[in-house]
Automatic annotation (TrEMBL):
Keywords: Oxidoreductase. Residues 16-117 form the Pyridoxamine 5'-phosphate oxidase N-terminal domain. Pfam families: PNPOx_N. It comes from Actinomycetospora aurantiaca. The keyword Oxidoreductase applies. The keyword Oxidoreductase applies. This is Pyridoxamine 5'-phosphate oxidase family protein.
Amino acid sequence: MTTWGEVEAAAPELAAAVQTCFRRAKHKTMATLRRDGSPRISGMETEFADGELTFGMMPGSVKLADVRRDPRVALHSPSVDPPDDPADWPGEAKVAGRAREVSSSDEGAQFAVDVTEVAMTRIAATGDKLVIESWAPGGQVRRVERT
């Protein structure tokens, strides 16, 4: 189990960049797995607080059933269309992990993400390369540049 606080401690610059991307708008996207194993994409709101990345779900929702059956999730930051100058694109962030239910009531369920991977994609300041930074528990931040 790797909390968001552990991501911040192990990869502080990457964690800050990911949080910036996730906080730029209210609605994110979450992928869960349906009963037959096929992916389901849903809108989602998240929060970073007290060393955790959390989200809630309404009772009876299909994504709640998905997560209770198979806790693997992938979260994607809000997308922003690239501006005329690619170097000005703020990038996008992804977090994968397992949803851990922390509370439940008649009003819904709250989950925290046990992180298995974090990734940030952006354009280099020179505007001529795609830069992908990623991190997984127990590892170092990896940086890949593509032209």
